[in-house]
Specification:
It catalyses: dTMP + ATP = dTDP + ADP. The protein is of the alpha/beta class and about 210 residues long. The protein has 8 helices and 5 strands; from the N terminus they run E-H-E-H-H-E-H-H-E-H-H-E-H. It is globular, with a radius of gyration of 16 Å.
Length: about 210
């Protein structure tokens, strides 16, 4: 793996989509076709992973078993790696992904109470140990994030948005545990600030990772 692999993570309502869009707008002129933007579940150029995304996020399937959900995420991730991430990294490109395996560890391991260690094992198997160069984590209290969703979100509301506050608290706790375990990888950004400040802080944190000078 010779390229740079950056992932964006955060609880629901952290403003991840808005921050990511702004960062990509700044990077695009600098990197041109060396920049690959993708997301999980699913992924750019991966129809199999996208089909699994449609299934796992379907709000009409509330009875989906928690382990089934976890395994589907891992399967989608594997296909995403094979189709999109690894080929781009082999060409020394910068890959930015909206979510990666930390999401499964936090949401299924923590939120679904399946166990952080068990979900980590499943996803390490699925990814063959491929980890991001850096992970931007947009940190926000669950109650603040959920309030933002209720007040502002206009796009899709999926199965994860309608979970109880306790679910989202477990997700946040798992993310914090991951950040403590890998402080060299996690770039923690206070997402409760105004959007412009969050974008600025994220850009500043990424500059040395990407070799960009102010």
């Amino acid at each position: 793996m010779s390229g740079t692999f950056i992932t964006f993570e955060g609880p629901e309502g952290a403003g991840k989509t808005s921050v990511l869009r702004a960062i990509v707008e700044r990077l695009a002129p600098l990197l041109d076709d060396q920049l690959v933007l993708t997301r999980e579940p699913g992924g750019k150029g991966s129809p199999v992973a996208e089909a699994i995304r449609d299934l796992v996020l379907d709000p009409n399937l509330p009875s989906m078993d928690a382990w089934t959900e976890a395994l589907l995420y891992a399967a989608s991730r594997r296909q995403h790696l094979v189709d999109t991430v690894l080929p781009a990294l082999a060409e020394d490109k910068v890959v930015i992904s909206d979510r990666y395996l930390d999401s499964s560890i936090a949401y299924q391991g923590g939120g679904r109470n399946l166990g952080v260690d068990a979900i980590t094992t499943i996803n390490r198997f699925a990814t063959n140990g491929v980890m991001p160069t850096a992970t931007v984590y947009l940190d926000i209290r669950p109650e603040v994030g959920l309030r933002r969703i209720q007040e502002h979100r206009q796009d899709e509301v999926n199965r994860l948005d309608v979970e109880a506050l306790s679910f989202h608290q477990r997700v946040a706790d798992a993310y914090h545990q991951l950040a403590e375990q890998s402080p060299e990888r996690f770039l923690i950004i206070n997402a409760e600030q105004d959007l412009a400040t969050v974008i600025s802080d994220t850009w500043t944190a990424l500059m040395p990772i990407l070799g960009i000078q102010d």
